[in-house]
Design a protein that fits this description.
The structure holds two protein chains of two kinds.
Chain A lengths: L2 E5 L5 E4 L15 E4 L1 H11 L5 H13 L3 E3 L3 H18 L13 H4 L27 E3 L4
Chain B lengths: L3 E5 L4 H17 L3 E5 L4 H9 L1 H4 L11 E4 L4 E4 L4 H9 L1
Parallel strand pairs in B: 1-2
Antiparallel strand pairs in B: 1-3, 3-4
Chain lengths: ~140, ~90
């Protein structure tokens, strides 16, 4: 089961089965301690404001830059999807994919938070023109 | 008559594109789908979840939208498909 971990040096929060050996922010080794989810949420709410729409688009564009996929250039489609992602965050707490329904099982539903691990989806892998299920990310034609 | 349901999401582009095909099929073949939006209506969402065991094997292990289900035959069709495929599934 995944847990929250906090770097005792710089305060980075990690969510996973085990802590990173090296903190990606302060580079200290073996610096993570397991913490309860409530503590992680309190740290997050005190340090980070809600992501706005343009901020999210900028973040996922930067995320895609060094990968074999890009944000779909179809702006109308992206706009509709972001409407759904932000509506879901407002109504259901997290940026859930608007093209899949949450099951109410946290471990399963965390997999629906955008961007999800779409590289394993049959709509993406092994396809030249693959895309994530909702079509927010598509494979680059130049890679 | 078979009971046909289309589970869809308001901000799902696949669902948006399938909707006119479903409406065309309803007119041409005198069939009728219950069109249930699942992200803004929790009752509809619970109904879709109640078919989880039927839907997931056909939809990549998830509750994807759009999903079409025939509650009489337990037939499931998942995702954006051409009109002919939707028609064939509906009338089969």
């Amino acid at each position: 089961m995944k847990n929250f971990w906090r770097c005792h040096v710089c305060g980075d929060i990690h969510f996973g089965l085990k802590p990173p050996e090296v903190c990606p922010t302060c580079s200290v080794e073996h610096a993570y301690v397991e913490i309860p989810s409530g503590e992680a949420l309190n740290i997050q709410s005190g340090t980070k404001t809600e992501t706005d729409r343009m901020g999210f688009l900028k973040a996922i564009t930067a995320f895609a830059e060094n990968n074999a996929f890009q944000v779909n250039p179809d702006r109308e489609r992206v706009d509709m999807l972001l409407d759904g992602v932000f509506s879901n965050e407002k109504n259901h707490g997290l940026k859930y994919c608007p093209c899949r329904l949450r099951t109410k099982d946290f471990e399963e539903d965390i997999k629906l938070v955008c961007p999800c691990n779409f590289r394993i989806h049959e709509t993406y892998k092994d396809k030249v023109d693959g895309e994530c299920w909702c079509g927010l990310f598509i494979k680059r034609s130049d890679k | 008559m078979s009971k046909l349901i289309m589970f869809h999401g308001k901000e799902c582009p696949h669902c948006r594109r399938m909707m006119p095909l479903v409406e065309k099929l309803e007119k041409e073949e005198s069939v009728s789908f219950d069109k249930l939006e699942v992200w803004h209506n929790e009752q509809n969402a619970d109904k879709m979840r109640s078919f989880k065991d039927l839907i997931e094997p056909k939809c990549g292990g998830q509750l994807r939208t759009p999903t079409f289900i025939n509650t009489d035959t337990n037939g499931v069709l998942c995702g954006e498909v051409p009109y002919d495929k939707l028609k064939e599934w509906t009338l089969s």
